[in-house]
Amino acid sequence: MKAVIIGGGIIGLCSAYYLSEAGYEVTVIDRSDLSDNCSYGNLGMIVPSHFVPLAAPGIISQGIRWMFDEKSPFYVKPSLSWNLVSWGLKFKQSATASKVEKAGPYLRDINLLSRSLYESLKALPRFDFSYERKGILMYFRDHKTAEEEIHLAEKARKMGLDVDTLSKDQAQLLEPGIKLDVLGAIHYKCDAHLYPNKLNRQLSALLIARGVTILTGKSVKNIQRHNGRISAVELGDQSVGGDVFVFAAGSWLGELMHLCGQRIPIMPGKGYSFTIDQPRQSLNIPAILCEARVAITPMAGKMRYGGTMELGPVNNTVNMTRVQGIVESIPAYFPDLQLAMPEKKDVWYGFRPCSPDGLPYIGYAKSLDNLIVAGGHAMMGLSLGPATGKLVAELASHQKTSVAIEAFDPNRF
Fold first, then answer.
1. In sequence order, what DSSP letters do the residues of 285-338 get, joined into one string?
2. How many angstroms separate the CA atoms of 139 and 134, rounded?
3. Which of 48, 117, 186, 307 could make an SS bond with 111 (beta carbons 3.0 to 4.6 A apart)?
């Protein structure tokens, strides 16, 4: 049996790994050379703590306020785009307390599955992607945010997650080398982190060694369909046939679905990051700065800083004002951690594929019996890579899935 995967990010590579394990002959196709996709420059966090989807009550009003500040964590790029309008309306309909409550267990379970699979992957020979299980510290500076985060931590404990609520002094004990200016923090000890650059390189090498074919620099031009099935994808200079097709193309998922005569709501959310080699001061535990929506991860002797969510068409511009917002937020939480603005050439950006309800798409597409959709993971792509890959292999083999996936139905809109 042949499996063809469109997309060579962490979702596509993990799907290739588990399909190969299941006995499939696998081909991965990607438009890039795999050296710089969204799986490389992210913050490397594995987050069972993220059981609240992006579409949550209050995010719309908060987002509107942020839109008037160029340095804010959230921005919608003005565009005369029906896709953006339609996506926004679906986002508004999804941002209800009842829908968020229903989504929580699904997100918790798939993240816990992924963490378990990462711990198995790191035990493979010659695999060392700096995986560490130290948790993540969510720092807060104002009383309103403290109240919200403490309430969320209580909910996390009721859901069975390992989490502590810390005072400033308790948090300081976990970071003795960095002065804190916070009210406190939530320590999600259930979380972990890794160095994504290492992971992607090692996973690609392992797949090639196992006989997986990886075609880079290839864009899908057309999709051949016959009797409710995909028979082949056309790449311009060649055609690749298969028995099962997996669409794991990140923010380009909508374009692929359109070639199949189907629509799936997805918007690219641009994020920025920059990495400092051999930093003078380093955190011990990855951090999320709650009010600023900035994340910081120590990884492999480096420090990576990242943030912002810029919704709009895919573009190759680097908005240094938004990067400045990340830089300026750091000393508010860590007064002694004064960062210089990075050079534009040192700023990485990538496009998070965002569904309107903040949940991934995992499952069979309608009207096409052999098309599995694996996308829309937003900021959790790295976190959910192995779990999604395993679920894809289980779906392809018509096995019972390791966790419930009804909430991730790609046909729900």
1. S-EEETTTTEEEEEETTEEEEEEEEEESS------HHHHHHHHHHHHHH-TT--
2. 15
3. 48
pLDDT at 6 over 90: yes
On whether the CB atoms of residues 203 and 13 are closer than 8 A, the answer is: yes
> Is 342:359 a contact under the CB 8 Å cutoff?
no
Which of these, 113, 372, 347, 373, lies nearest to 250 by C-alpha position?
Answer: 373
Domain-located, residue 64:
yes
Nearest Cα residue to 47 out of 217, 199, 193? 193
State which residues form the domain around 284: 2-408
Going by C-alpha positions, the residue among 156, 187, 191 that lies closest to residue 171 is 187
**Which two tokens mark 107?**
């997100």
Among 104, 44, 136, which Cα is nearest to 383's?
44
Stretch (H or E) spanning 396? helix 381-396
Asked whether residue 287 carries a pLDDT value surpassing 70, the answer given is yes
DSSP state of 360: -
CB atoms within 10 A of CB 209: 9
Residues 6 or more apart whose Cβ sits within 8 Å of residue 286: 43, 44, 45, 134, 135, 136, 137, 191, 193, 295, 296, 297, 298
Three-class DSSP category at 400:
coil
Whether 239 is covered by a domain: the verdict is yes
State both tokens at 294.
């900035």
Q: Which tokens hold the place of 411? A: 């046909």
SS3 content of the chain, % helix, strand, coil (to 5): 35, 25, 40
Give the global pTM: 0.95
CATH code of the domain containing 20 = 3.50.50.60
Given this model, what pLDDT does residue 313 score? 81
- Alpha-carbon separation of residue 262 from 163, 239, 252 (angstroms): 42, 21, 14
Task: Specify the number of domains making up the chain.
Answer: 1
> Is the residue at 116 inside a domain?
yes
Q: How many helices (H) and strands (E) does the chain have?
A: 10, 20
Calpha distance 74→66 (Å, rounded): 6
Over the stretch 183-200, which tens digit does the pLDDT of each residue have?
999 999 999 999 999 999
Q: Three-state SS across 255-284?
A: HHHHHCCCCCCCEEEEEEEEEEECCCCCCC
Which among 150, 138, 174, 169 is positioned nearest to 45, based on CA atoms?
Answer: 138
Q: How far apart are CA 266 and CA 50, in angstroms?
A: 20
